[in-house]
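Database export, one record per block. Field names are fixed; values are copied verbatim from the stored entry.
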Amino acid sequence: MRYRIIVPVLVSLSCFPAGCSSEGQADESLSFETVSVGTWNGITNQRSEVIYNDTELSAFWSALMNGVSPAIPVPTVDFSAQVVIGVVAPEGTFGVTITRIERKGRGMVVNATVASCNSICPAVVLRPYHVVRTGKLLRAPPVDFVFLDELF
């Protein structure tokens, strides 16, 4: 099994006057719980989001469950204590798994593995996703999403 970084993405809702920095090591690993995982959803492109309230969750969930039958109901989340993180892999990959979430300085790093085919692949079109909940962070931390490609 080979691993390589395929898409490092920095999503920053705001950078503070001192600037954003990725220096230093992760401060602590955060526990998380899977809300939903699947191989088909209504979002057709790669997407990574940190969701902070019911309105954002409803919009994300509506897009995620668009065309899915039966649709999974919107989960109940206590946004006073938790945030939701959703990762949708590109169409044509075979799975995505959030493997680790780390607090890093004022922000966090979300690590995910994307399963891709490296040889003869089945003729199946999938749109995998993984949605988790974790402890609440400040409203505007910088968030890095790091995707590792797991080839099979």
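Remark 1: The radius of gyration is 16 Å.
Remark 2: The chain has one helix and nine strands.
End of record.
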